[in-house]
Amino acid sequence: MSDEFGVGGIRERVLAAWAAAPVRFREDANAEEDLALGGYLDRVVVELAQNAADAAARAGVPGRVQFSLRSGTLVVSNTGTPLTAEGVESLATLRASAKRDDSESAVGRFGVGFSAVLAVTDEPVILSRSGGVRFSRADTAAAVAEAGVHSPGLATEVRRRDGQVPVLRLPFEAEGEPPEGYDTAVILPLRDEAAAELVRRLLAEAGDALLLALPGLERIEIDVDGVTRVLAGVESRWFVQRASGVLDVSDRERLLADRPTEERARPYWSILWALPRELASSDELPGVVHAPTPTDEPLSLPALLLATFPLDPSRRHVATGPLTDRLVQEAATAYAELLRSRAEDNANVLPLVPTGLAAGALDRALRDAILAALPGTPIVRAVEDGTLLRPRDAVVVEGSDDAFNVVLAPIVRGLIGSPRQDRTALDALGIRRLDLADLIDQLGSAAAAEPPTWWHGVYGALSAMVTEPLLRESLGTLAVPLADGRLVRGVRGLLLPGNELPADVLAIFGEYGVRVVHPEAVHPSLERLGALPMSARALLEDSAVRVAVEHSAEADDPDVIADAVLTVVAADVSQAEGLWWLSDLVLRDAEGELVPANSLVIAGSDAAAVLDEEEVAQLAPAIVERYGLEALEAIGVLNSLGTVSASDVTLDELPEALVDLDGIEDWADDVAPDGSRYGATVGELIGVRDLDWIVDDAWPRVLGLFGTSPELRRALVETVRVVGPDDRPHGAPSYTAWWIRERVLLEDGEPLAGRADPEADPILASFLDSAPDWTAQLDPEVRTAVGLVRVVSDLDAAGVELLLDRLADPDREVEESAILRLWSQLGIHEAYPGETPDDVRVLDGSGRTKVMSAGDAVVADAPMWLQRNDLGGFVVASGAAADGLSDLLDVPMAQEVAEGKIDGEGTAADVPDLVRELVPEAPDTWWEHEELLVDGVEVSWWVDENREPHAATFDGLAKALAWASGRWDQRHVIRAVLSEPGRSSELRLDATFD
């Protein structure tokens, strides 16, 4: 086998050097191992493609390379300069490159890239048109072992390394030819399946970045188990920006002083930025810097960067130093030019501006340099004429959109668009921001001479912006042309003309300052900004209309104002609801005098019949005929009694709509929690007006009206929900009910309120004054609301006080049944008079009642206390009613004045089974006493504090067991069981139906 490349001589020299100095063997083995297992572990595809590109560049031919992976062998074939003896020696000499004299187009610079094959093979072969060479771990190990026979030191080094030897230091002859159409082929028998998987992955990852990094290659063909993929025409898929140069002598001395000798001999630099022409997501970019092949330096920019950055010994990272700093600046300049070029092609380059956080130190340096270069590069387009501007010369208007920018462009020099998604990029470029509100202020002055149609276009441009609440605030001072020729600032409250209202009516109100938008400027955006469509309601609510109404009596022609207002109201009377101040409009009465609407009544109406003619006047009939009764009632003219209302009423600051109600301040004081109006509120308050104008003899008719009118009825009978400052609600009488109760007096000079209702409980009625006969015709709820009393719960505090006074009258005969019924109701009533009574009515023990001093009475809340005549007179009730009576009458409970302690212990006895059968709650045991004394007083039965029954008689035992069981209603059944055991069957049967 011929030795075209002198590989035998190379082996002899290397083996001799190792034998003479075994340390050289160790150094070569360590160096190769570091490369194969470190920086070149997963670079076999890149390094072989790089060698192919360099071969093509040296030959000056288009570079083509084919990767073919089949049956566990990778074959890499390429065009270009074939293998030479110098090349073989370079492969076998670590860090000695055969490319040192090549032009700047050569990519490889270190002479060690071929060591990447050792990550996947132990037997690499190179076949070229000029000959072949191979490397072999096994053959190298054999040669080293033979040399070690004569060099004990070498043999020792091999043993220390467990027989591991450097593969690429000893080349061997090889025979064969590269595939047809190629000049060189590298054949790699893969070591194992893990190596095969690594190669498959690296081939799958190979893409356009590899072609861009290796300009000497125009085509890469990848064949994996018969499936072929071709990479070619890379610049048709990428926008590319290149920059290159040669360092002058001074730059070489300054920038290359810390670089290896071979790098100092290559003063060339190059930069390539590439942007994909179509990119679904940034995940398709490699995300690392290429120098010019991939490194481990992260890159956050949405582009591909290939640059001749100096690398550290691992070839994984860019080395720091002055050369890298220089290339960072060159890369930033090139990136800025790339963005300028794309901007000239009408591309939006703002997504390419660096934003967010850097991915690493080099990435941070690149971003900083780019952000320093971009403000001076024309990459943003002016709205007005589309010219490219430098970011330092551009401005954006905060919140403005594309449509409104067109309006602002002639006014704002250097204005550019500012889509929301580009805000961060605009800030990174340092583009000046103008406040939208300030521009809106200036717009009115700058465009004061523009016609209404121009303003219509402005409002159209704002269509999208007015939907944003925050932007609407900024547009608050927008200028608007009015129908009267004025240009006013601020849209809110302006009226948008429509066809609903007559032009002459609008003209009348215009004299009073009603602001109507010019018809040619009207646009839906104005309504979104607070302008009001000119409905009847909007016009009536306008402050200028209110001023005109409230001062109509002083107008030059009050009738004209009255006609305008009534024309609007008559168009839709519901639009006047709640506008209480319309009642200030002056109209002509039957005598031709001007009178406010709220002091006018319709002739022949209920209002005319019940209101004092000294306070009201009758409206001129002609006005009724012209505008209709509904319109006149809507502005406060009375046909019946009228109401006023308000919502969210604060009692310590009553609304203007309510302040004219007679006695409203007194009502607020009475219903406020604890008498303090501060912080108390009412959700809705409706009151009947002019109650103080009703003549005395008209109340029967007036109260009849309350029963027939839903509005008047509601104002009277519905209670008011008052919420105190502690957010606790309570019910209170309506203003109308309060006024009638407090102010309406009958012919005898006494109030109507507090009298017995025609349908009152007879027992209760016997203690109250009778209501007039005519009240029987009133609605029952109306009677209750005005203070007539049907049951005890209808009594107010004054009524309770009156009832207690009359109960304490010794001249009255009061039956026991009547007082027991009244006590049960009074005890749970919530109304308390201001003072407690001196005397109270009590039971006298004979089935009747008597009056005694409250200090001599007690409240008995349990039947056993009624045996204690020593305690005084008894007020009797149970449960909550007993507690209530004790408080109401200021009379103590019986247990508060007597201990109720049983003297002696008694004899325990079993409760009969039948008793416990019929009353399961009954205790198992009771205590029998021959004489039962409680607090020294003899009684027939008692239940102590432990609910244990004690008794001295059959009747007492029945009561004691019933009370101890909590089944007082069963005392008669228990007595029957105890006294007549023979009735047990009858009693069981009866209990079945309980």
Explain how this protein is built.
The chain is an alpha+beta fold. It contains 39 helices and 40 strands. The protein has an 8-stranded mixed sheet with strand order 5-4-3-6-2-1-7-8. Strands 26-27-28-29 form a 4-stranded antiparallel sheet. The longest helix is centred in the middle third of the chain and has 23 residues, at 322-344.
Topology diagram in text:
Blueprint: H1 7-20, H2 22-39, H3 44-59, E1 63-70, E2 73-78, H4 85-91, E3 125-128, E4 131-135, H5 137-148, H6 152-160, E5 171-174, E6 184-189, H7 193-205, H8 208-213, E7 217-224, E8 227-232, E9 238-246, H9 249-255, H10 261-264, E10 268-276, E11 288-290, E12 294-298, E13 304-307, H11 322-344, H12 361-373, E14 380-381, E15 388-389, E16 395-397, H13 402-408, H14 423-428, E17 432-434, H15 436-446, H16 452-461, H17 469-474, E18 479-481, E19 487-489, E20 495-496, H18 503-510, H19 524-528, E21 532-533, H20 536-541, H21 543-550, H22 558-571, E22 586-588, E23 594-596, E24 600-601, H23 606-610, E25 617-618, H24 621-627, H25 629-634, E26 643-650, H26 664-671, E27 681-688, H27 699-708, H28 710-717, E28 720-723, E29 729-732, H29 735-743, H30 762-765, H31 780-785, H32 797-807, H33 816-826, E30 839-843, E31 849-853, E32 857-860, E33 873-876, H34 879-889, H35 894-897, E34 902-903, E35 907-910, H36 913-918, E36 925-928, E37 932-934, E38 937-939, E39 941-943, E40 949-951, H37 954-965, H38 971-979, H39 984-992
Parallel strand pairs: 1-7, 16-17, 20-21, 24-25, 32-33, 36-40
Antiparallel strand pairs: 1-2, 2-6, 3-4, 3-6, 4-5, 7-8, 9-10, 10-13, 11-12, 14-15, 18-19, 22-23, 26-27, 27-28, 28-29, 30-31, 34-37, 35-36, 37-38, 39-40
Helix pairs in contact: 1-2, 2-6, 5-6, 11-12, 18-22, 27-28, 33-34, 37-38
